[in-house]
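To: structure desk
From: M.T.
Subject: fold request, one chain
Message: Could you run this one when you get a chance? Sequence is below, nothing fancy, just the single chain.
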Amino acid sequence: MLLPCLHKGVIEAGCDEAGRGCLAGSVYAAAVILPDDYRNEQLDDSKKLTERQRYALREVIERDALAWAVGVVTPEEIDKINILNASFLAMHRAIDQLSVRPQHLLIDGNRFNPYPDIPHTTVVKGDGKFLSIAAASILAKTYRDDYMNRLAEEYPVYDWKSNKGYPTRKHREAIARYGVSPYHRMSYNLLGDGQLSFDF
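Reply: Done. Structure tokens follow.
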């Protein structure tokens, strides 16, 4: 069972990102502050839930949270600062937008660029341990999926509707055949052949 918080009586925001391993599209992150004694047995790591469960839980999270927000970092920014820093920046942007200022941050993973004046704790596989991180993982994933579905209508050849920008065989074959879109991350090994950049 997931824990409601690390420090009882402290306003704590859980943070997680989605889209780090993708070849295309922005990276999204969410920050969520839940009530101290919050309980929800359906809440879990977004990767363990079906699409339908994630979207149903998104409505519940947005209704029940004391505050929530989503931050975005573009492919161009990812190429400039690298995906690790981009993931941290997306979390910072989500925290920036919270209507309630947290006193502590729970970060999914083992590294984080400190947010000014707010202490943090990193938690490996935190989305399977803490409700607030699980909630953040669901918001980040569903809002990023919405975004990739919109891009898929603009560029249907890459099959983003189903792969959401991840490096599937069909996605890489489309890059080899049609070239890159304005949404591809040019600092990534897009073809999976060890080459970081290429000309079409």
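Reply (cont.): The chain is about 35% helix and 15% strand. Let me know if you need anything else for the meeting.
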